[in-house]
Amino acid sequence: MKLKINKMKRLKLIALLMLSTAWTTAQNYTIRGYITDSKSQETLIGATILDKNSGKGSITNEYGFYSLTLPHGNVSLSIGYVGYRQFSNEFRLESDTLLNLSLSEITELSEVTINGNRLELGVQGSQMSAIDLPVEQIKAVPAMFGETDVLKALQLLPGVQSGSEGSAGLLVRGGNPDENLLLLDGVPVYNVNHLMGMFSTFNPDAIKNVTLYKGSFPAHYCGRLSSVVDIRMKDGDMNDYHGNFSIGFVSSKLNLEGPINKGKTSFNISARRTYSDLLLNSALLGASLIGRETEKYMAGYYFYDLNAKINHKFSDNDRLYFSWYSGDDDVYFRYKYKSTSEGNEFVKLGWKWGNVVSALRWNHVINPKLFMDLTASYTQYRHNMDMGLQTEYRQEQEKTKESINMHSGIFDKTMRADFHYNPTPDHEIRFGSYLTHHTFRPDVASYTSYTQNADTTINNTTELAQKPIRAMEWQVYAEDNMSVTDLLKVNLGLSSSLFSVNGHSYYSLEPRLSGRMLLSDNLSVKAGYAYMTQYVHLLSNNSISLPTDLWVPVTNNIRPENSHQIAGGLFYNIEDLADFSVEAYYKRMNNLLEYKEGASFMTSDTDWQDKVAMGRGWSYGAEFLAQRSIGRLNGWVSYTWSRSRRQFDREGMVLNGGRPFNAKYDRRHDFSITGNYKFSDRFDMSATWMYATGNCGSLYTQYYNSDNMSSVYGEIGYFEERNNFRMNPYHRLDLSFNWHKELNFREGAERVFNLSIFNAYNNRNPYLVFIYEEYNSTTQQTYKALRQVTIFPIIPTISYSISF
Amino acid sequence: MNRTIRYMAVACAVMLACACVKDIPYNGNDSEPMIVINCMARTGEPLDVYVSRSRFFLDTSYDSNKLSDADVSVTINSVTQKPSYDSDEECYSDNRTVMPGDTITVRASHPQFGNATATQVIPMPSTISKEKESRKAFNKNNNWSWTWADSVWSVSVCIKPETAGRHYYRLSLYPERSIKSKNDKSIISVESSRFGLTQSTKMTLGLINQESILDGEDEYSFYYSTPTYTFSDEKLPADGMLTFEIALDRPNEEPFYGYLEGVEEPEEYLWSRDADKTIDYQCRFVLETLSEETYQYLLSAQQYEDSGWSIFSDPVMVLSNVSGGLGILGSSSTSESIFITSYTFE
Predict the structure, then answer these.
(1) Cβ separation of A725 and B22 shorter than 8 Å?
(2) What residues of chain B lie within 8 A of the CB of A774, using their CB?
(3) Which residues of A touch B297 (CB under 8 A)?
(4) 3-state SS of chain B: helix, strand, coil percent to 5?
(5) Is A647 on the interface with B (CB under 8 A)?
(6) Could you tell me if A606 lies within 8 Å of chain B, comparing CB atoms?
(7) Is B60 within 8 Å of A782 when comparing Cβ atoms?
(8) Considering the entire predicted model, what is its pTM?
């Protein structure tokens, strides 16, 4: 009987609780909408929406959407975005409310329009090891040949290094160059380099926002060990047409944007092309005309990028985006000999490589608390090399044709669904999944020959091809960015992935955790942990980026790389001055790949799996960043102290005798200071100074007799440890000056004359070091020394641009 | 305008001049030469110890680095001797021979280049035994069809270690053919035979130094070099059996010089005119069971040799087991097996 009463009581209690929950829910309403730029209607990523009454807030996602659920009653909303006027509004919340808002830029500070670090990346947010770099700031960074570059600007941030000088490659927290996930509108780009890595494929004119994650990765990112660079393209102005045209030392660029259907549909298109080949060919053509030569040459190199995006707004709940990127590098040589008596000869050589990336995205607000992003995307990187010879001999009456073609590539097709669910202001939940079909196409070579003479015709085609490797990659994730208390905020996530290739599957469960403890309004301490898995590898020579670099999947023998990273830091903000952060990290990596000693990508007769060794690595360091995003003077100061070590001691895969050694890009110190200053509306300047410990490499320091103990007949080289030699430190100063002048034909139109000076004090920075030896027959003495090559001395460049 | 062009030309010249090279000092602390010991201790053979000094990479002198005035001692199973210096061979010779299981220590010291020492235990030998042999017609369509072979001699050997654990081997093959006189059947020429391996054998072994011979690319090495394979027993099939195929090639019609037994001067012969149609073929398999350090040394030295041509290859660290210096004290136990067959060419 007693038991029965207890049961009844329990049931009543549960019913009461359910009723109270229902009542509470009924008292909450959701405000949702998009935050945009008032002029262009470009959505703003990371804008903050705060109810001053309750202290609860939200942040716009990467599509500018926000959702904030608050109790019934008076609301005092404050919406802000650094560089934009704050918007405040008070109203009574009595139902779910759609509130699309446009913020205006603060033109008084328009010397450089700065967006600043987003809330969730700064003192208040739970995310750490992430930095937002506004495109305006990227464009203000002085650049080699005047070509502003997203990745080179990122190299100035703490924890990020470049490879060799001039390279756009990223090395993040002791990781390798292939451990970075570079996303353009959420789609991976495999080869991000033009001209051996001197320029990246990302044209700043087409870009809206760049965010770099070095650790504490949110669960929706996966697939690489060291970093995620999330680059978002501009959507295009919904209201008015704008454009920008610039002509520079290396390339010309054009950017156009505007409405297709005002307020509904917009476009943004950007193109860039280098023209060194046009100049060279004009010279070659001129030379052949002057000399009335029967021989004609054409040769050159160029690259181009084409970005396009269309954005259509069906309603406040539905948007469709289509984004496209295409970029190629092309090296070519043509030779033509024409003689009426002898015959003709035609030789052509061509080397072309590039990416195509496209995405079709549908944003749908399912209900005020639930936002859906569906994406179908395609990305490919392909490399093609052609050689051909064509002859026609009149006397012999013979025609021949020979051609060799080699190509390789990687092709991905992905379906992805992401959901953003904000049930209460204390929970920002994301969950989703994607499925990618990879096709890896290793080297394919074909040879074709054709001979025709008076008697016979011979046609022959031979193809040598490795079979395409197909793989499926599937990921499902969930994360909750939750406010535990007013002081403690935690982002808890779990990602699970499966990679299936050649009948073999790898599975990985990746926990992610980061948290922030607020010590005061402008001071917080953060910590984070992330486990990452990587299923694809880049077979590459370390020092330069070559188009022959090959992406390959994991195999039965080559296991996925994985890493554990922990990080902690202190974040401090001084209002109206700057953001400061100090972070320390420790990263442990497994199944890293390196070429075996003596192996080279140049030898194609061996299976790539036999050429690489698997080992482990660990890196640790401390990073400091002071970033000022407002005022006439803005910029950042960054310093990194780090170590990165490797150990390869598995049987058959031993490097350095199995002992630990410095990673190739181990650097102790990395310092940079970047500043932009606006003197007046007509003149501004920026400067960057950087200092870095020199790169290291392996150098035989002693030679000794082999005494025929082995197959070595001469001397054997000896070095104490792999990467035992360190080059001289690297430092340089870059300057950029901009002269602005308003143009009368349209309001806001201006022309800008830019003078950039790369390596202003002409420091001879090391690019490579080799052993130089010369015998002087007069003195009969041999001179031998280490010789350092510098490839980029002081380089002044000018550019001119018109924007309207 | 001309002035502008002049200024630009000067600016370009300055830029080019700046984009130059400069010599830099070496800032490492490992520039001092070290003492080097090289010695391969094989069962049944006397010990030759080569002692030299290393050369700093910026040294411009390439004179002999051999050290004839070093203090060298060899200890075999606790019995120490000072070997004598052989100025012809430029090495220190110890006439003692070593046996499986012996412990050898070599010490060398020099007032200028310091002291070095290395120790090795001679590994226990593995046996190599004849298992089977067969002959089949030569397939002209395979990748060495350009030879003049009529027939393929297939021989199988079995490698069996005496002890448990991982074993390391160097297997050398010496195929020979004896051409006999048509008249009195006396041998007039013994020469290296052509040699080929089946693809499956090639895949089975962790080959490290005979790619060119297998691919038939290098005719010189095809004729004169001894096919040698260095591998660990993880590369061996479970039954330890390896099958090799030897091409029994027809001597060509070019005159050749042969040596009759007991006659010093060679005489010119023509195979079709002077030689017997039946040729004796012999294949000698010499198996060295290596110590692990010897194996790693041979492997890394081969990688070092192979990578020499490529500027893109990462440098190779050749293993050294010499404490206080450089070089290798290697050890091996040798066993062998011989196959003989006769073939009559039509």
Answers:
(1) no
(2) none
(3) 709-710
(4) 15, 45, 35
(5) no
(6) no
(7) yes
(8) 0.82
Q: Are A699 and A727 in contact (CB under 8 A)?
A: no
For residues B204 and B166, the model is more confident at: B166
- Contact by Cβ (8 Å): A699, A723: no
Q: How far is CA A454 from CA A343, A450, A699, in A?
A: 15, 14, 60
Both tokens assigned to B63: 């004179």
Average pLDDT over residues A329-354: 84
Q: Do A790 and B310 touch (CB under 8 A)?
A: no
Chain A contact probe: residue of B4, B166, B318 with most A CBs at under 10 A: B318
Inform me whether the pLDDT recorded for A432 exceeds 80: yes
CB of B55 less than 8 A from some CB of A: yes
Instruction: State the pLDDT at residue A168.
Output: 67
pLDDT number for residue A634: 85
Which residues of chain A does B21 touch, with a Cβ-Cβ cutoff of 8 Å?
A: 772, 787-790
Residue of A nearest to B34 (CA): A702
Q: How many CB pairs under 8 A join A and B?
A: 183
Provide DSSP, A307-375. Answer: EEEEEEE-SSSEEEEEEEEEEEEEEEEEEEEEETTTEEEEEEEEEEEEEEEEEEEEEEEEETTEEEEEE
ipTM at complex level: 0.83
Taking an 8 Å cut-off on Cβ atoms, the answer to whether B307 and A791 are in contact is no
Provide mean pLDDT across the span A560-565: 95
Across the range B206-220, mean pLDDT stands at: 37
What average pLDDT does this structure show over A72-92?
Answer: 86
How is A89-136 classified by DSSP, letter by letter? EEEEE-S-EE--EEE-B-GGGTTS------GGGSSSSS--SEEEEEHH
Q: Residue A116 pLDDT more than 60?
A: no
Q: Specify the pLDDT at position A258.
A: 92
A596/chain B closest Cα distance in angstroms: 8
The band of A113, judged by pLDDT with boundaries at 50, 70 and 90, is: very low
Say whether residue B326 is in contact with chain A using an 8 A CB cutoff: yes
The number of angstroms, rounded, from the C-alpha of A618 to the middle of its chain's C-alpha atoms is 23
- How far apart, in whole angstroms, are the C-alpha atoms of residue B107 and residue B92? 11
**Per residue in A669-718, pLDDT tens?**
999 999 999 998 899 999 999 999 988 888 899 999 988 887 777 889 99
- CA–CA separation, B226 and B249 (whole Å): 17
* Residue B14: predicted pLDDT: 59
Which residue of A lies nearest to B306 if distances are taken between CA atoms?
A: A598
CB contact at 8 A, B159 and B143: no
Residues 6+ apart with CB under 8 A from A544: A163, A164, A167, A196, A197
Q: CB contact, 8 Å: B318 with chain A?
A: yes
List all residues of chain B from 15 to 54 with a beta carbon under 8 Å from chain A.
15, 18-28, 30-31, 33-34, 36, 38-40, 50, 52-54
Query: Highest-confidence range of A434-438, A594-598, A655-659, B186-190, by mean pLDDT?
Result: A434-438
The answer to whether A788 contacts chain B (CB < 8 Å) is yes
